[in-house]
UniProtKB/TrEMBL annotation:
UniProt domain AMP-dependent synthetase/ligase: residue ranges: 31-389
Record GO terms (molecular function): ATP binding; long-chain fatty acid-CoA ligase activity
InterPro entries in the cross-refs: AMP-binding_CS (IPR020845), AMP-dep_synth/lig_dom (IPR000873), ANL_N_sf (IPR042099)
Protein name: Long-chain acyl-CoA synthetase (AMP-forming)
Keyword Transmembrane helix in annotation: no
Lineage: Bacteria, Pseudomonadati, Pseudomonadota, Gammaproteobacteria, Pseudomonadales
ATP-binding listed as a keyword: yes
Organism: Pseudomonas pohangensis
Gene Ontology CC annotations of this record: membrane
Length: 558
C-alpha cells in the first residue's frame, strides 16, 4: 500500500484525465447528464469553497440523505476538500432513525438528494439544521446545489487531509439494535480502495475501459468502497447510476458494466426471473448441449445485461453455492466475498484460482485472520475502523488484546486459506432439545429453490425448528389459486423431506410456513442492505407460532 491518500488520486485524475468521462447520471425520459473528471471536481471545489465560507469546525460532520447519484460522490469530495467528515444516511431510513443519526453524529449540515419518501422523512430533520438540496432532490425549499455552485468560485490548490483524519462515519444498517457509527480514516479508506483496484485490474488485465453501475446504497460500505472509492483511486472506471427500479434493466444496458457487484437476494432474483421465462429443467437441458449451450448461456446473460461483465461479485451476506455454480455455467465467473462495515468491506474474496462455491475465497492483501477457540473469525484489515463513534465501551469489547476484530461470525479456514462462514454467533438459537441451531446454512439451502425468495429459520425453545418462507415474486400473485397451492404444498413437502435428510437430528425442520406478505425495507423486515431483521420478523409472527406447531401439515400457509 502506498502513502498516497484518496484526494491525491483525485487531484491527479483532475489533471491527467480532465476530459475523460467519470460519472453518468440518468435525469429522466432516457436522458443523462455526463461529468468528466474536470467538471466533477470543479463542482466539488465550488461546493467546498461554500462549505468553508460557513466556517464549520475542523472535521465537522456533514450528513447526506440521498439515493445514489453522481452528486453523492461529488458532494462527498466537497466535504473532504472542505475539511469535513461525511455521515451518509440510508435513503430508506425512517424519520426516527434519521433524527437519531443526525443528533448522535452532531451533524452541522445536511445534503438532501434524490429520495422516494421525503415527505415521511423530513420530520426527522431538526428545523434548525442547515440543509442543501442536491440535484434530483424532491421539492425541499432548501438552498439548492446548482445555485450555490453557479455563484461560488472554486477552492484552489490541492487541499490535503491527514491520514488519521476521519473521512466518514458509517452507521450500520441496524439488523440488530440501534445503528452504530463506524469511524473510518483517510488512511483506511485509501488503503482499501488501492487494494480493490489492484484486485480488479489484475483480474481484468489492466483494461482501461471499465464500467460499473452504482445501485446498491452508497451509504453502505460495500458500495462506498468497491464502487465510489475504488473509482476515485482507479481513475479509469466510469460510474453509471440507476434511475429507478422500473428503469433498472435499461440503466444496466446503458452501462454495459464490466464489473458488477450485487447481494445474494438480487443474484437469486435475477435467476428466478430467468426461471420464470424458462423452467430450470429445460434450461439445464439446453445448457448441456454442445455449442447450443454456449449460445443459450450467452443469450441469458444478454437478457440480464451482464454479457460484458469480466468481474462479478457477491457480498453483504452468504450466497447459496448452487447459485454461484449456476452463474458460472452461464460463463459468468461469480466470486463471493466476505467483509463488514468495520473493515470498510475489505477482508476475504474469491480469486481466479481460489473460488470454491460455499467459500469466501482467501484473505485480501494485507489482511490477517485467525479462528478463535469457539469458531469465531477474527480479522485484522487495512480497512480496520478507528472505533465506534461515542461508544468507547464497544471499542474495548470488539478487539482482542493484539488488535484483531471480533467479527461475530463463525467460520472454518481451510489449509489453502479459503474461508467458509457457517453463521453468526448471535443468530444461534436453542430448541427445546437444548442444542444450538445455526440458521444461515439451512436458509441457504432453502433459498435456491425457485419457489422461494427468502427464508428465515427459527424456533427458540420449540420441539424442532421451522422455516418461514417468502414465495418468489413471480409466484406470489397466485397465492389464492387452489391448484397452485396444492402444487406448492407438494413441491415444498418434497423439498422439506430432502433437506431434513441432510441435516442432523436437532436441526431438522418441523415445517415450512409460507409468509402472507413479502419482507421489505419498508415494513421493517429487511435492512437497507437486504439482510433479515430477524427480531422484527419473529416479533411479527410470535402470536401465530404455537398455532403452526399445532397443525399437522409439513407445509402451512400463514
Amino acid at each position: 500500500m502506498s502513502a498516497k491518500l484518496i484526494l491525491d488520486y483525485v487531484y491527479q485524475h483532475e489533471i491527467e484525465r480532465s476530459d475523460q468521462l467519470f460519472l453518468t447520471q440518468p435525469t429522466g425520459n432516457g436522458q443523462v447528464a455526463e461529468y468528466t473528471w474536470a467538471s466533477a471536481v470543479d463542482e466539488a471545489r465550488r461546493m467546498a469553497a461554500h462549505l468553508q465560507s460557513l466556517e464549520l469546525a475542523p472535521g465537522a460532520r456533514v450528513a447526506m440523505l440521498a439515493k445514489n447519484s453522481a452528486h453523492f460522490i461529488i458532494a462527498e469530495l466537497a466535504i473532504w476538500m472542505a475539511g469535513g467528515t461525511t455521515v451518509a444516511i440510508f435513503p430508506t431510513e425512517t424519520a426516527e432513525n434519521i433524527h437519531y443519526v443526525l443528533q448522535h453524529s452532531e451533524a452541522s449540515l445536511l445534503f438532501v438528494g434524490k429520495l422516494d419518501n421525503w415527505e415521511q422523512q423530513r420530520s426527522g430533520v431538526p428545523q434548525d439544521l442547515p440543509c442543501i438540496a442536491l440535484p434530483l432532490a424532491p421539492a425541499t425549499g432548501f438552498a439548492d446545489w446548482d445555485s450555490i455552485v453557479a455563484s461560488t468560485g472554486p477552492l484552489g490548490g490541492q487541499p490535503q487531509r491527514a491520514a488519521d483524519d476521519l473521512a466518514l462515519i458509517a452507521y450500520t444498517s441496524g439488523s440488530t439494535g440501534q445503528p452504530k457509527g463506524v469511524m473510518q480514516t483517510f488512511r483506511s479508506i485509501s488503503q482499501v480502495a488501492e487494494g480493490v483496484v489492484s484486485t480488479t485490474l489484475e483480474t481484468m488485465g489492466g483494461n482501461t475501459d471499465n464500467r460499473m453501475l452504482s445501485y446498491l446504497p452508497l451509504a453502505h460500505v460495500y458500495e462506498r468502497a468497491w464502487v465510489e472509492c475504488a473509482a476515485l483511486v482507479a481513475g479509469n472506471m466510469q460510474v453509471f447510476f440507476a434511475e429507478s427500479l422500473d428503469t433498472f434493466l435499461a440503466d444496466l444496458r446503458r452501462a454495459r458494466p464490466t464489473v458488477f457487484l450485487s447481494v445474494p437476494r438480487l443474484w437469486i432474483k435475477f435467476q428466478q426471473g430467468v426461471f420464470a421465462k424458462m423452467p430450470p429443467a429445460k434450461l439445464d437441458l439446453l445448457l448441456r448441449i454442445p455449442f447450443l449451450g454456449r449460445r443459450v448461456a450467452r443469450k441469458v446473460l444478454i437478457g440480464l445485461g451482464l454479457d460484458e461483465v469480466k468481474i462479478a461479485g457477491s457480498g453483504s451476506a452468504p450466497i447459496p453455492h448452487e447459485v454461484i455454480a449456476w452463474y458460472r455455467r452461464l460463463g459468468l465467473q461469480l466470486l463471493e466475498g466476505y467483509a463488514m462495515t468495520e473493515d470498510f468491506g475489505y477482508s476475504f474474496g474469491g480469486t481466479e484460482q481460489q473460488n470454491d462455491p460455499g467459500y469466501c475465497g482467501v484473505a485480501r492483501t494485507g489482511v490477517q485472520v485467525r479462528i478463535a477457540d469457539d469458531g469465531e473469525v477474527l480479522i485484522k484489515s487495512p480497512g480496520q475502523m478507528a472505533g465506534y463513534y461515542k461508544r468507547p465501551e464497544l471499542n474495548a469489547e470488539c478487539f482482542t488484546a493484539d488488535g484483531f476484530f471480533h467479527t461475530g461470525d463463525l467460520g472454518e479456514l481451510r489449509a489453502d486459506g479459503q474461508l467458509r462462514i457457517s453463521g453468526r454467533k448471535k443468530e444461534l438459537f436453542k430448541t427445546g432439545k437444548g442444542k444450538y441451531v445455526a440458521p444461515a446454512p439451512i436458509e441457504n439451502q432453502l433459498n435456491v429453490h425457485p419457489l422461494i425468495e427468502l427464508s428465515m429459520v427459527s424456533g427458540v425453545g420449540q420441539s424442532a425448528p421451522y422455516a418461514l418462507l417468502v414465495l418468489a415474486e413471480e409466484q406470489r400473485h397466485r397465492r389464492e389459486e387452489a391448484t397452485f397451492r396444492q402444487q406448492v404444498e407438494t413441491d415444498l413437502a418434497r423439498l422439506l423431506e430432502q433437506l431434513n435428510a441432510q441435516l442432523v437430528a436437532h436441526e431438522r425442520l418441523r415445517m415450512l410456513v409460507i409468509a402472507q406478505q413479502p419482507w421489505t425495507m419498508e415494513n421493517g423486515c429487511l435492512t437497507p442492505t437486504m439482510k433479515l431483521k430477524r427480531s422484527s420478523i419473529e416479533a411479527a409472527v410470535a402470536a401465530q407460532v404455537d398455532d403452526w406447531y399445532a397443525r399437522p401439515g409439513p407445509v402451512i400457509w400463514s
